[in-house]
Amino acid sequence: MKLLLCVDASGSSDRAISRVTELGLGHSKSNSVTLFTVCESLPEHVFEISEKVGMHANELASAWSQKSRSAGEQALAQAKAKLLESGLPESAIHIKLCVADATPESRQVAAAAGLIEEMTSGNYDLVVIGRRGAKHLSENLIGSVADKVIRAASGRSVLLVD
User: Where do the structural domains in the chain lie, given as residue ranges?
Assistant: First the structure.
């Protein structure tokens, strides 16, 4: 079984990791788990307007992208440690970090686009994702990223973890 485990800094992500270990998913020698997260960078159009307003866009973009990447790397490292603690062999764990341009619409659009791209190109048997991300509204049944991923799943199995 080829499993895609979507991780971020949210409680839902922690619960998704726990569910994967509780169910023993990935523990067979023929199984593999890909830990996946999306980090944002500032798109090129930000640099074009920065000259007009006198901002130091290169410095801002670099600091912002580095912070996003660092948070993503930390989420991946913590997820990997939890899977290793559960007995999953290190050879079965793969790490992928996607860097996507931030969009004017919202952060969730970039995250969803990155996850959907990996889901469709990676030929996964199962996609595991938390019901809501780090920034959620309690009245929503599911978060916007999970919603977009489920809608794009088309023929793929998705385990949505609360």
Answer: 2-161
Identify the pLDDT of residue 49.
56
> In Å, how far are 14, 54, 59, 71 from 128, measured between CA atoms?
11, 44, 36, 20
CB environment 23-56: b (16+ within 10 A), e (fewer) = eebbbeeebbbbbbbbbbbbeeebeeebeeeeee
The DSSP code for 10 is: S
The whole-angstrom separation of Cα 37 and Cα 103 is 17
Packing angle of the helix pair 107-121, 144-152 (nearest 10 deg):
30
pLDDT averages per 10-residue partition of the chain, 162 residues: 89 89 76 89 62 61 81 94 91 91 63 89 91 56 82 90 86
| CA–centroid distance for 106 within its chain | 15
Residue 111 is inside which H or E element, if any? helix 107-121
- Grouping H, G, I as helix, E, B as strand and the rest as coil, residue 148 is helix
| CATH dotted code for 2-161 | 3.40.50.620
